[in-house]
Design goal:
With about 500 residues, this protein is mainly alpha-helical. It has 20 helices and no strands. The protein has helices at about 5-25, 30-50, 55-80, 95-125, 130-135, 140-165, 185-210, 215-230, 235-255, 260-285, 310-330, 335-340, 350-355, 365-370, 380, 395, 405-430, 430-445, 455-470, 470-485. It is globular, with a radius of gyration of 23 Å. The two termini are about 45 Å apart.
Length: about 500
């Protein structure tokens, strides 16, 4: 371990101990239960970086760690209310112990998925033929057509943004002003959320392999992420689309951006500037304009409002500082979902199957938001504002009322996204694409509230697009499989 890595580990562990001590001192349930909960999630976040397994596992562990342990400990320390509605949860010590027990069992399931994945990794690796692994990572003719590829992608970005401004197809917080025919609207939403960044990541990797460097791809990714986030009134899209590149830079900095701290500092400065622009613009358009969202169902009756703001300086401070805590901690899903579902009285396998098979609609409050979380959002509100409180996968699985279901379900879901990434990595050989896919798969996992068909369809469509972008390697692999099937090797 390098000196920099050792220093980072020491600082991170010291911060964890400080937050743990503050949290256990303020926790009003069983101190032993809080210690078990904390140790399990320390194992979860440690397993993400000790002997790295996959990008999807890293992002899943990080999202769950922030949305469960970090959020709970910070709120216990500061004794502040939660931003998302929590249904029938009464805040008693017994209720909190139940929440931490369910979260801990879910964390055990995640760790179990890593153990299971490593156990069977050799089986997945054997399915990738050496001939495919040794194929070029760049399609034939890319060096000649490279400029046209980038220009065509730029045209798609411009057309997507223009369509959003003209027809209001994706303005987060608001229902769409106009719907594209099925399934084009879903494809458009996928394109804006991950599709464009996935294609940019693929071209970026091809540039690196072809010797053109990463500068063009990185700048295109930053500009596209900023423009899409501003257009969609989103604060999370920028983070979701650029996070994979940041992880890649930290893991493979010299190969991607070259040596030298100045270049690394330059990329960091550009990223921070984009983050500030997206946060300020999204907050302004969503909460400070004539069409602003009035989230009266948030913060348990304590919404973040603009009262008391009299100057531009105060407005800027409100946008960039008061919202910082709200966006960095409170908007991560997970804990409030477990709080709401654990206190819901009618749990059982029948309820789990009902919620899993229902299809969520844009202009109708979903079951969790309306009934379990008791947000106060009505169907009339949903026709104007697009809002849905997110339960998270652990809360979703606890609809069954069974801790075994939570543990096994989290193990299966985490293993599935890891296996999908492993298969795509072997077929494509594209590290940047794997990072983008891993972040999106983890995002879909932690956003589960019900209606499993929709996230499953999105994941499947993403896999199909990745395979289409790497068609020449897929064809080579298919030929190898056909040849192996037609001419099986003789047994010893």
């Amino acid at each position: 371990m390098s000196r920099w890595n050792s220093g980072f580990v020491i600082i991170a562990l010291a911060a964890w101990i400080l937050i743990f001590l503050a949290g256990v001192n303020s926790y009003n349930g069983s101190k032993g239960m809080y210690c078990v909960f904390s140790l399990i999630f320390l194992m979860v976040i440690s397993s993400a970086f000790l002997g790295v397994v996959s990008y999807s596992y890293i992002f899943t562990c990080c999202f769950l760690f922030v949305g469960l342990w970090f959020k709970m400990s910070l709120h216990a320390w500061e004794e502040q209310s939660y931003a998302e509605p929590v249904g029938y949860f009464d805040g008693s010590g017994h209720a909190w112990d139940t929440v931490l027990l369910v979260c801990s069992i879910g964390g055990v399931g995640v760790i179990g998925a890593r153990i299971l994945y490593q156990r069977f990794d050799f089986m997945l690796a054997r399915r990738v033929r050496p001939e495919v692994s040794g194929m070029p990572n760049v399609p034939e003719g890319y060096r000649v057509w490279r400029l046209r590829f980038w220009m065509g992608l730029g045209g798609i970005v411009i057309l997507s943004l223009a369509a959003n401004e003209m027809f209001g197809l994706l303005k987060l917080g608001h229902t769409p002003q106009w719907y594209l025919p099925w399934p084009l609207h879903g494809i458009y939403g996928w394109l804006m959320s991950v599709g464009l960044s996935l294609v940019i990541g693929t071209l970026m990797w091809w540039d690196v392999c072809a010797g053109f460097g990463v500068q063009v791809g990185a700048l295109c990714l930053f500009f596209e992420s900023v423009l899409v986030s501003v257009s969609a009134f989103s604060r999370g899209l920028y983070f979701l689309q650029t996070l994979p590149f940041l992880v890649l830079v930290l893991a493979n900095g010299p190969r991607l951006i070259g040596h030298g701290w100045k270049r690394l500092a330059g990329f960091a400065a550009v990223w921070l500037l984009g983050l500030l622009i997206t946060i300020a613009s999204a907050n302004y358009f969503r909460h400070y304009t004539a069409e602003s969202i009035q989230p009266h169902w948030l913060s348990q009756g304590k919404p973040l409002t603009t009262q008391g703001i009299e100057s531009i300086a105060e407005a800027g401070e409100h946008l960039l500082t008061r919202w910082a805590r709200h966006l960095a901690v409170d908007r991560w899903p997970g804990l409030e979902g477990v709080m709401a579902v654990s206190s819901y009285p009618e749990k059982g396998l029948r309820l789990l199957l009902q919620v899993a098979t229902v299809r969520r609609h844009v202009n109708k409050a979903d079951f969790y938001t309306a009934e379990v979380a008791r947000s106060g959002l009505t169907d009339e509100d949903a026709k104007k504002f697009h809002y849905a409180s997110v339960a998270g996968p652990i809360a979703f699985l606890f609809y069954s009322g069974s801790l075994w279901c939570v543990c096994i379900g989290m193990c299966i879901l985490t293993f599935v996204v890891m296996a999908c990434e492993r298969g795509l990595a072997g077929l494509t050989g594209n590290s940047v694409m794997c990072a983008v896919f891993g972040a999106y798969a983890a995002f879909l996992l932690v956003q589960i509230s019900g209606g499993l068909s929709q996230p499953a369809a999105s994941l499947l469509f993403t896999i199909m697009v990745v395979l289409a972008l790497h068609y020449w390697r897929v064809i080579a692999y298919a030929r190898q499989c056909i040849a192996a099937w037609s001419n099986p090797s003789p047994r010893a």
